[in-house]
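To assess whether ligand presence alters the predicted conformation, the chain was also submitted together with zinc ion. Input:
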Amino acid sequence: MKNVKSLFKTLISAIYPNKCICCGEILDEGAYICDNCSVKIERINLDDICLDCGRENENCVCKYNIFRFNALVCVFKNIGLARRAYYSYKFGKKQHYANYFAEEVYHAIKRCYDGTRFDIVCAVPAYQRFGYDHSGYVAELVAEKLGIPFNDKLLFCIKKSKKQHKSTIKERLHNVDGKYFANCCLDNKKVLLIDDIKTTGATLDECAKTLLFAGADCVYCATVLGATEKSKNKN
Ligand SMILES: [Zn+2]
Ligand SMILES: [Zn+2]
């Protein structure tokens, strides 16, 4: 029986070999990224990050914005290999890539929020919940790694999104105003809020406002992709 199982496994991996999430190179089972892409993937330098806006210090936008979340850490820049890999997870039905992104977000949280003990993890919700919730799934895996409960019934999105990508921060803040609703009393809980992409921070800011209004003690955020230098002017 054991031999049949391992033969079956070998057959499956011959038909569907495990590949690098960036370049497609065939990898051993359980690996996500090849050594070459792991060096090249565009990471945000966590030794030089401003945790108030989630950007590297030279691109910090804190003099233009004051966010209501307590801190934000973003793992990758929204460009190149990192962007391509995340978008193939998000739109390309590569659901197992979630493990790689969750692992990276987990390490960034451990490193930047060292010593903060969170009570609950939640994700930025979509307006309509159907199909696969890509941010929610990463958040759920991060919660599992941290050993903290994940709650996907905490925050609800009650307003449909407008197309945001060409909006300024002021327009984005206006677009997301009143967009979220918290479904419980958070009673001084320390909340870890996870999203996939941070552009201006308006969405995270509005979710943090909602969670704080519902009684959260603090809201710390983490995203897979963060803003790049290019979008600085829009902030
Ligand atoms: Zn590769
Ligand atoms: Zn900053």
